[in-house]
Every structure is written in C-alpha cells, then in structure tokens.
C-alpha cells in the first residue's frame, strides 16, 4: 500500500499544473510578508518571529506584594481565586499561575539547598593535622543517595510496624 502512495505522490509532483499551483502559493506567501518563507526543499522557515512575540509580563512591586500575601495564605489557587486575583491585579491568569508555580519551585529549591548545606556542615572533617576541611562536592551526591535510601528504609519500617508477625503453633 505504501508503494502505491509513493507512486501517487511522485505523479503529483511531476504534474506541471500542480507545480504551477505550488509556485502561485509560494508567491502569494512572499506578498503576505517576509517573515514566512519556504526554503528550496519546501520546509517552512521563520524569520524575524521575535517581533510578533509578546513581551513577558512581570508584576510590579505592589502586585508582587499582593501575590506574596496570597501565597502565604495558600500555596495553590483555585481556578476561581486565580480569576479574581488576576482581575484585581490587572494581570492575566497565566501570569498569576506562573508566578505561583515559580514561587513554589523557588521555595522547594531553597529548602533543598538548606538541607544540603546542613549536611555539608555536619560532614566537616578534620585533616591529619586537625584542621577542618569540607567534604568534596562529589561526596554530596553520595550523601544525598544515602539520605534517600535511609528515608526509604525508615518509611518501609514504619509501614511494617503496624503488622505483628506471629508463629504458627501447629
């Protein structure tokens, strides 16, 4: 079946009338604007697209303060609350949604970095001459792996603690 379609496609491409129609379309695109052109192999090529792109809307200081206040009350907005907040602050819903997502991400990264820094402080060791030195960075990866496996082990033990293992008296 695929061979038949390839034959049909080849026939259509050879067809002079079809080529004229394609040329007409390409010429009309050139008349529409220079930012939408076709390369010689027929692939569309976009140029100067950045002119048509919208700029990034950043909340001003007052809007940020209001968003932060709302974030402190709840980290996740309902659809209705997002609409209200966007309307109150004269921002788009997408901007409000993105601000909340970015804020949650920033908070998670800060929390993670604090944990890593705490582990680094705990992992200060002393050289042979008694001078403290930090554990090299590549050890951080091993520490985080140990923490993950230890957390999994503890969670597994906590889940098993509710079960009592008994022996069969038979």
UniProtKB/TrEMBL annotation:
Subcellular locations according to the entry: Nucleus
Gene Ontology process terms (BP): neuron differentiation
Chain residues forming the annotated DNA-binding region: 52-111
Phylogenetic classification of the source organism: Eukaryota, Metazoa, Cnidaria, Anthozoa, Octocorallia
Assigned GO CC terms: nucleus
PANTHER family: HOMEOBOX PROTEIN ENGRAILED (PTHR24341), HOMEOBOX PROTEIN INVECTED (PTHR24341:SF6)
TM annotation in the entry: none
Coiled-coil positions: none
Coarse class of the protein's main subcellular location: nucleus
Keywords: DNA-binding, Homeobox, Nucleus
Protein name: Engrailed, partial
UniProt-recorded Gene Ontology molecular function terms: DNA-binding transcription factor activity, RNA polymerase II-specific; RNA polymerase II cis-regulatory region sequence-specific DNA binding
CDD domains reported for this sequence: homeodomain
InterPro entries noted in UniProt: Engrailed_Homeobox_TFs, HD, Homeodomain-like_sf
The keyword Repeat is assigned to this record: no
